[in-house]
Amino acid sequence: MSGVLTGKNIVLGVTGGIAAYKSADLVSRLKKLDANVYVVMTAHAKAFVSPLTFQSLSQNYVVEDMFEAPRTWDVEHIALAKLADLYVIAPASANVLAKMAAGIADDFLTTTILATQAPILVAPAMNTQMYLSPLTQRNMKTLQDLGVGFVAPGSGRLACGDEGIGKMAEPQQIVDEIVKLLAIESESDLPRLLEGKRVLITAGPTREALDPVRYLTNHSTGKMGYAIAEAAAAMGAETKLVSGPVELSAPEGVQRVKVESARDMFEAVMCDLNYDIIIMTAAVADYRPKTTQTQKIKKVEGDLTLELTRNPDILFEVGKVKTHQVLIGFAAETEHVIEHAAAKLRKKNLDMIVANDVTVAGAGFGSDTNVVTFITSDGVQTAFDQMEKSEVAKAILKKAADLLSEADPVGTS
Ligand code: C5P
Description:
The chain is α/β, with parallel strands linked by helices and 413 residues long. It has 14 helices and 21 strands.
């Protein structure tokens, strides 16, 4: 399931309760799914778990004090509230539930809750009598009526020695609820613009074998292509992803074909070009060793020269034979970005090229964000500010859907 929360910003509010230690496990489970986690603690929470624990697990600064935050952290409380895709409060004490129900904002946690427009999910944890108190029950009902989600506590022996309801839900249960909520969110976010369409995407690096144990490759992580595949499926397209070796798992609803070398990728693409939209994000090796040794190459005295030969340019080959397909390529450049990208667009017979300067911070390999310019075959350029790759993916697909309907306004292909 790794990667399912890639690019999602989850703010986790931790309040004062012994269950706070379980939230450390919650953070590490969310990180394993590639979420960005920002922990906010109340003053009481610090009595149970050290902020350093959450800081180390989340790899983000932990905010505790409203007035200290702007000096020590570049994301202020309003910015953090805006950044959140989901606000989770676990454990949620009776006190914080009461403050939320009343709209009180007297510390960093409750202020960000009030300021956020993200969905809110709470995992209550408290003594049984406090949980069953009509006041807490009323506060929870108020919050539920306002759309706040709940992961109900379980029953058992509580830290105070009592037996009964009030134990915080297990971290995995909370994770499951988060994944469910965010999946629904991201789907409802996206118009079903590509219903009934077929989309083909290439992603990741290729590996060009030198011998049975060595290969030539590059730093591509596949994040951009996988984000496009995920968004295409969410927009209703039948989506195929031809992927070089990466660490990511196949997005839901996407048919993934795994390949190793450029020649494997070429074959996997060319075997079926009956797609409406073809988007090539793969960082395909331009060259491969002229011969792949069947045995491990032995060390020799002095230098070793490798002879390389050209790989097929998959995008160029598709451009040569394309008919109705909207064909989109990427141009990762380090200088003269627009000129080089525009030249590639023409040479490869593309409908659009997505140009990015990989030397700019927040763009290129491995990053969760990208800074891109679209250039279409009519020469129109559209430059974007830095965006999450998931947002870049949506923008590309919306543009591709436009290009498709311009080419075939009545949708006959
Ligand atoms: O010419 P350049 O490698 O910069 O072009 C980049 C674009 O071409 C990307 O969309 C990439 O996926 C594609 N490409 C390809 N096959 C290659 C080289 C690049 O499909 N051998």
